[in-house]
Amino acid sequence: MTTRPFLLSALTISALLGLANGAPAENKVTYPPEAHDNAAEHGGGQPAEHASGQSAGHAAEPASAAHAAAPAAPHGDPGALCTGFGPQTPRDIGNTYGSNPVSFGLAPPPEEMTLCNIHTHTNAEHLGPGFSIYAGPEENGGFKCAGSSGLSAAELTRPAGSPARFEGVEPGDTIEVHWVHTSCDVTPGPGLGSCLSESCANPELRVEAQVFLVVNDPNALDFRDFIYLGTMRNGRHQARDLPGGTGTPVVFRGSTTGPSYSQQICSPLQVTWSVRPRCARLDIATLDAWAAMGNVFEESHSHGVRRLVTAPSLLSQID
């Protein structure tokens, strides 16, 4: 997500809305790591074991009873939790439990909405079955795809000769891509400001999210298959396509993300999320090609992540 501010009604928004093959068990971890799990230090809540370290080859399973009590805040995220806000994002998509009392209607499917923005985050903001390798708590933390540590030297080599580089991403990195959709009749463009207008200041918002393992491999997915190139369907701006084959998306109520927000500084916006549970391999040359083409979103680099939200009071119940 971008970190530049946008005006939405009276609210200043400083950040935007974030492997099909099975993973070896040694690549999977629970979150928070055991050394970081100190709920008493973070304002209450009880630690619970998370099930998102399951095989990346399987879709997210319903939460077990053990998920009912999640840690209140990750390590290094001190201070009182937000109050009076709706459910927040990102989250562990394998844990359905949440106790936030604010509810709102789920936004329509993406084909019934208008694509308004596409952007990327380096490392996954969400924790899921296919992206459960903990990368740290800070802006450059988040989670990595299963299989990240088993790549060949060739897969980790950035091809030379591209007229442009998509910055903030290297082969071997994980990225989470967000296709942001709005109920407003707008034209796609940079930032969240492109998702609203003077006559549509409180839109329904929906984010389609896919996590990718970025590699040097011409046989991997081509990012240009999923970009916006003036594509119109039924009078609405749309991506050329959305990724498939990575499991049934987990749909839930949440908020915008990005490193400007935390469990102490919450996003006021209400967003429907649709997050695919497994990673897909993406050819880095096609990200560089997107940068070389230029795009209406003015995206030339990947953004930081918001720390995982774990406090049940800040999470919606996943139906």
Q: Could you outline the blueprint of secondary structure elements for this entry?
A:
Blueprint: E1 6-8, E2 11-13, E3 114-122, E4 133-136, E5 142-144, E6 174-182, E7 205-215, E8 232-233, E9 236-237, E10 250-254, E11 271-275, E12 280-283, H1 284-293
Parallel strand pairs: 7-11, 7-12
Antiparallel strand pairs: 1-2, 3-6, 4-5, 6-7, 8-9, 10-11
Task: Offer a concise description of the structure.
With 319 residues, the protein is mainly beta.
Written overview of the protein:
This protein has 319 residues and is mostly beta strands. It has one helix at residues 284-293, and strands at 6-8, 11-13, 114-122, 133-136, 142-144, 174-182, 205-215, 232-233, 236-237, 250-254, 271-275, 280-283. It contains one helix and twelve strands, in the order ββββββββββββα. A hairpin with a 2-residue loop joins β8 (232-233) and β9. 3% of the residues lie in helices and 19% in strands. The strands form four sheets. Strands 3, 6, 7, 10, 11 and 12 form a six-stranded mixed β-sheet that branches. Strands 1-2 form a two-stranded antiparallel ribbon. It has one domain (1-319). Mean pLDDT is 82; it is low at 1-30 and 34-76.
